Amino acid sequence: MSPSRRDDGIVWSTQHGAMCPSCERPKAGCICQRLADATPSGDGIVRVARESKGRKGAGVTLVSGVPLGASDLAAFAKRLKKRCGTGGTVKAGVIEIQGDHRDTIVGELEQRGWTVKRVGG
After folding, report:
1. Are 24 and 10 in contact (CB under 8 A)?
2. In terms of pTM, does the model score above 0.85?
3. Which CATH number do you get for residue 94?
4. What is the pLDDT of residues 82-92, one digit of tens each?
5. Residue 72 and residue 51 in one domain
6. How far from 38 is each of 13, 43, 85, CA to CA, in Å?
7. Looking at the structure, do residues 52 and 109 belong to the same domain, yes or no?
8. Domain range enclosing 99
9. Total domain count, the chain
10. Where does the chain show beta strands of DSSP type E?
11. HSE on the CB side for 84, CA within 13 Å?
12. pLDDT band at residue 35, thresholds of 50, 70 and 90?
């Protein structure tokens, strides 16, 4: 019996059972979560910037280059949001904090021992 197929890959196999749609491996051997939690490579500098472009004038503080995996990055973003007393999110590995909180965030990042650069004005 051949495996069931969709347009984008194997869904179920008689040999392995349920298959991961992303890496097309059996669910037991799926590597997607490990890849998502892998620490991103970069130059080791955490950059803090303020941006209001495309946000109808509302400024946000952007934190990029944080050397953490996806789940740790979300937890760290939550800590920063609580410290600043505002909302925010994580999009594509970049933490967005509502408002201009560059001074607070730079202090928090330096306290953790990371090299920090203020980007922009």
Report:
1. yes
2. no
3. 3.30.780.10
4. 999 999 999 98
5. yes
6. 28, 16, 29
7. yes
8. 45-119
9. 2
10. 4-6, 9-13, 17-18, 45-51, 60-64, 88-91, 94-98, 115-119
11. 26
12. low
